[in-house]
Design a protein that fits this description.
CATH architecture of the largest domain: Roll
Strand order of the largest sheet: 3-2-7-11-12-13
Number of domains: 2
Structural class: alpha/beta
Radius of gyration: 18 Å
Helix content: 25-40%
CATH class of the largest domain: Mainly Beta
Distance between the termini: 24 Å
CATH superfamily of the largest domain: Urease, subunit C, domain 1
Amino acid sequence: MLVIHRVGLLLPGADREPVPGGAVLVEGRTVAAVGPYEKLAAASPGARVRDWPGVLTPGLRNPYGPELLEQAYHPDPREAGALGTEPLTGEALAALEMPEARWGASARRGVQRLLAHGTVAVAGELRREAVRDAVTRTGLRIEPRYEQPPGPPTLDPFAGNRPAGEVFMRPLTEGTPADFAIFAMPPEDAPYPTLPTHAATTCIATVISGRLLHRRR
């Protein structure tokens, strides 16, 4: 099935020029084409079209996989009265009984929070089987990590003024996995220097291997 994701501004990545009124054509799990919407639509008249407000970029990479998914507990909404809504670490985490099933459920909620920030991959070794299983089942990618990232851990991949090459996954080009994020930003605010201020907290959709895994309601 062919799907065109149409946006106000496409940022393909790797210092390639932005495309106003751009789009990404997805075929199955991969990118079939990128460019102006009119060009893609004319070449694939039978494609389904998804219109999104804002800016489309390559998906984001979060370096804190173990810290966010194995060293923090993401409370169930039903636990909010007792535990709050923010991830629990340190003494608060140590006070909880954490069987493997509870770790798996926490990881699933943590992955949803990562997806809601435009994240398509986390870096770092995940050692708990329940956590690894929860992550792979949702589709989030796991990458190796060769050095400890500076802290503190955060859900926002842009935190700490990380370079663009560390934040974004592979550029969007024909034949690459269809991994990208869409942010509710005015196109004029989208050049990379302003993304850290606005983007990750305004994510409206995250796509991994062509699958829409997060959509803000």
